[in-house]
């Protein structure tokens, strides 16, 4: 399959687009003909292919998206594999899709994630990555941790057009405003929701913002959601892929790393799996100097350690508030209210130690 370049923007190919939408709530049997129509609409060379040339299967149904694997048998006998990503309903409340689409064009051009092939009303079409998704326990393995650090450093060096102001606190305060004005029809959900002290949460956010600003952390284009499900590995080629950039934005370097470390907790949210200092230093060394990790200066390691573990608290606050909004708008059967309390309580459990480390460092530096 060839994608015709209709124009170029900042050196980036403009991919085919369609206004078609696909209802993500439909069963696969009803989604399949809509996906076939979508492919014919986007890619002119497939416009006359019979339905039998297309195969559509579910790859995964995550918290915000539905991923489909599409196989197309072309007239020349070639089989082309695609991934179709359908955005979940109401995800615009927590994801800036315009920001995502702008970023993904440049990240794809820089070699990150799957190649962007087309966009449509509520999703995108990308090349298929022949690799396995990592498990949470994979991320802490020293060899893989080193490779993730190397790839993340390269990711942070990609330049995305537009404002380079960090989005973290804007997003958190936006989430806080939305989260504090919810009303649940379910009486038990409403009762649990009313136990949240938004004055306390606001004070926590403001205090942490003031502390992290003293660290003068570098601002990079960050992934912001580097959990195991967004890391893929081709074992034969030993090639690692960073995928799914829907939360990507300019942000603080330490936040992106800390958010990744929080994901060591895995699906059971066991935050005792958060990496210790030695494991963090191993990651930092390969982030700073992949070719000479043992040449990294001690002061650089210490500075990034303090930075990362201060922003670790911000990661908990971000996803706690995100969860409150999802509890209201998401159709997915998941206890988002409990997830709020899980993340917020972890913030409170870690706060004293992290603040002490940061304040001691700032006093001595």
Plain-language structure description:
By secondary structure, this protein is an alpha+beta fold. It has 2 domains: 8-127, Phosphorylase Kinase, domain 1 (2-Layer Sandwich); 132-364, Aminoglycoside phosphotransferase (APH), C-terminal lobe (Aminoglycoside 3'-phosphotransferase, Chain: A, domain 2). It contains 10 helices and 12 strands. It has helices at 28-42, 97-109, 142-156, 168-179, 187-193, 198-213, 253-262, 277-288, 298-329, 336-364; strands spanning 8-9, 12-13, 54-61, 65-73, 79-87, 116-120, 123-127, 132-133, 219-222, 231-234, 239-242, 249-252. Strands 3-4-5-7-6 form a 5-stranded antiparallel β-sheet, sandwiched between helices. Strands 8-10-11 form a 3-stranded antiparallel β-sheet, covered by helices on one side. A two-stranded antiparallel ribbon has the order 1-2. Strand 10 (231-234) and strand 11 (239-242) form a beta hairpin. The protein is globular and about 70 Å long. 36% of the residues are buried.
């Amino acid at each position: 399959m060839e994608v015709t370049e209709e124009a170029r923007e900042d050196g980036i190919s403009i991919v085919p687009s369609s206004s078609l939408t696909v209802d993500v709530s439909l069963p696969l049997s009803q989604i399949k003909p809509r996906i076939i129509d979508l492919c014919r609409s986007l890619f002119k060379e497939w416009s006359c292919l019979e339905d039998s040339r297309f195969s559509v299967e579910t790859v995964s149904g995550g918290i915000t998206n539905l991923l489909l694997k599409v196989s197309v048998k072309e007239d020349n006998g070639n089989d082309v594999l695609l991934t179709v990503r359908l955005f979940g309903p109401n995800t615009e409340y927590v994801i800036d899709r315009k920001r995502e689409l702008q970023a993904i064009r440049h990240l794809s051009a820089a070699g990150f994630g799957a190649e962007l092939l087309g966009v449509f009303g509520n999703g995108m079409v990308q090349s298929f990555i022949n690799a396995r998704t990592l498990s949470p326990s994979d991320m802490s393995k020293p060899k893989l941790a080193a490779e993730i650090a190397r790839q993340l450093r390269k990711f942070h060096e990609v330049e995305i057009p537009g404002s380079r102001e960090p989005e973290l606190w804007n997003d958190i305060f936006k989430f806080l405003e939305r989260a504090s004005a919810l009303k649940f029809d379910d009486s038990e959900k409403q009762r649990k929701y009313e136990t949240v002290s938004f004055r306390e949460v606001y004070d926590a956010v403001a205090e942490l913002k003031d502390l992290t600003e003293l660290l003068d952390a570098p601002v990079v284009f960050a992934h912001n959601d580097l959990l195991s499900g967004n890391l893929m590995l081709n074992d034969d080629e030993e090639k690692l892929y960073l995928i799914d950039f829907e939360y990507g934005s300019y942000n603080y370097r330490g936040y992106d790393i800390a958010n990744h470390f929080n994901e060591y907790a895995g699906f059971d949210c066991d935050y005792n799996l958060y990496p210790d200092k030695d494991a963090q230093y191993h990651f930092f060394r390969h982030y700073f100097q992949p070719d000479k990790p043992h040449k990294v200066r001690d002061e650089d390691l210490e500075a990034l350690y303090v930075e990362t573990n201060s922003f670790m608290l911000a990661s908990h606050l971000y996803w706690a508030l995100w969860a409150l909004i999802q509890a209201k708008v998401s159709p997915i059967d998941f206890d988002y209210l409990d997830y709020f309390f899980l993340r917020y309580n972890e913030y409170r459990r870690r706060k004293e130690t992290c603040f002490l480390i940061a304040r001691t460092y700032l006093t001595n530096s």
